[in-house]
Design brief:
- The chain is mostly helical and 151 residues long.
- The chain has one domain (2-134).
- 77% of the residues lie in helices and 0% in strands.
- The chain has 5 helices and no strands.
- Helix 1 packs antiparallel against helix 5 and helix 4 runs antiparallel to helix 5.
- It is elongated.
- 26% of the residues are buried.
Amino acid sequence: MYHLLFVHSILRWLVLGSILLVVFLAWEGKVFKKPYTRTHRISAAVASGLSHVQLLLGFGLYMISPNVKAYWNFKPSQWSEQTFFALVHFGLMTLAIIIITIGAALSKRETDEQKRFRILFNSFVLALVIIFVAIPWPFSPLAQRPVFRPI
């Protein structure tokens, strides 16, 4: 389990970096009226793909996590880390990946370049905000985990 958790922890930085790249490229294309290029298409596809891999790893962790098992066995009435991981983290991350998937698919189908950039920018920023809320940062009041998890 700990190796899977380590990979999940490392992959989050690649996911965040790829989403930030798409947001920057979409903003740049929208503001400076640049053409939609192969770079934009590939960066959106990579961000979407990495996000899906991260979600699958997260689903695997969800099935074997002692925190999640403790929540579903005892269902605490007060807020706990088990509640965060069993409901909040799982639900919000799934929602964020759904938004990324829909945004990438809609931008692919759009023919107007400015609308493509707008769709990519709006969907990826919304997903990024949701992801930032759902990550158990060391300073988060919901649940804390280290920034880099050792093996």
